[in-house]
Design brief:
Layout: H1 33-42, H2 44-47, H3 56-69, E1 74-77, E2 85-88, E3 103-107, E4 113-115, H4 117-122, E5 126-133, E6 139-149, H5 150-157, E7 165-170, E8 176-180, H6 181-184, E9 189-195, E10 198-199, E11 209-212, E12 224-230
Parallel strand pairs: 3-12
Antiparallel strand pairs: 1-2, 3-4, 5-6, 6-9, 7-8, 7-12, 9-10, 9-11
The structure holds ligand MTE and molybdenum atom (MO).
Length: 261
């Protein structure tokens, strides 16, 4: 398992804060008062000093518990993640591995399918190295992701002519995302099994997450469990809370970041 552990350090002296569903520059967006109160109450600064990997699981669920009290979510830095922050909108996320992981493809398809992790691993893998950009401002350059092209899974399932979009669901039980069918068929959209040349850790959404290279990282749903082909786009979790549904880096959410892909 990973030794990753959320803690309080912030690059550029930023206060930890969750996704803020509106445009504008990140430095104009303080953490909402509720967030500051929650973080202060929990004493995250002290927690950050706890470095023993054995405590990681407890800390993670502790942080998750805090997120549960704050519907806007909770973040922490992943110290070994090279600038990544941990995001979850739920208080805890079940752990899944090759013994119990399933990815279901259903909706407007001729052949609804359920893949095990081994089945996904056995399919041809695509590796891409792109920058990762979160809509709150942090960016991680040159991050390798590896997995199965979403288009391959869609073709295998046989998308029906009436289809126009995809809805993604997650085994955290709450997060959702969306893409148009055209976006989903892009060669730079992966059902990712690996990140930074390692199997995806639980914190990063393992064993399987979506990776949408040209879009803000909120599109890259962690703990992916369902791909439902639909007629029209149904806005995802953050999109219902104000983020752009078309999330091209640098061309959405009122931001001006350099494209990632
Ligand atoms: N299931 C789930 N997926 C998610 C999120 C989440 O809260 N839950 N947050 C999104 C956002 S806003 C970002 S920036 C990235 C963070 O990925 P990381 O935790 O691996 O850094 O995951 C995205 N996918
Ligand atoms: Mo994000």
């Amino acid at each position: 398992m990973t030794t990753e552990q959320p803690h309080e350090e912030q690059p550029h002296g930023e206060q930890p804060h969750e996704e803020q569903p509106h445009g504008g520059q990140p430095d104009e967006r303080g953490a909402p008062v509720g967030r500051r109160v929650v973080l202060g109450t929990l004493g995250l600064g002290a927690l950050g000093l706890v470095a023993a990997p054995a405590l990681q699981r407890g800390l993670e669920s502790f942080l998750g518990g805090a997120a549960g009290k704050d519907p806007t979510g909770l973040t922490g830095l992943l110290p070994n993640g090279g600038g990544f922050r941990y995001y979850s909108v739920t208080s805890s996320v079940p752990r899944k591995d090759a013994s119990n992981y399933r990815l279901t493809i259903d909706g407007l398809v001729d052949r609804p399918t359920s893949y095990t992790l081994d089945e996904l691993t056995a399919l041809p893998q695509t590796r891409m190295v792109r920058d990762v950009q979160c809509v709150t401002g942090w960016r991680v350059p040159d991050t390798p992701f590896e997995g199965v092209r979403l288009s391959r899974l869609l073709d295998a399932a046989g998308v029906r002519p009436s289809a126009g979009a995809i809805r993604f669901t997650c085994f955290d039980g709450a997060y959702t995302e969306s893409l148009t069918l055209d976006q989903a068929r892009r060669a730079d959209v992966l059902v990712a099994l690996r990140m930074q040349d390692k199997d995806l850790s639980h914190s990063h959404g393992g064993p399987v997450r979506l990776y949408v290279a040209p879009m803000y990282f909120y599109k890259s749903a962690k703990w992916l469990s369902g791909i439902t082909v639909t007629e029209k786009v149904r806005p995802g979790y953050w999109e219902e809370r104000g983020y752009d549904v078309d999330a091209w880096v640098g061309r959405s959410n009122g931001r001006h970041d350099e494209p990632t892909a």
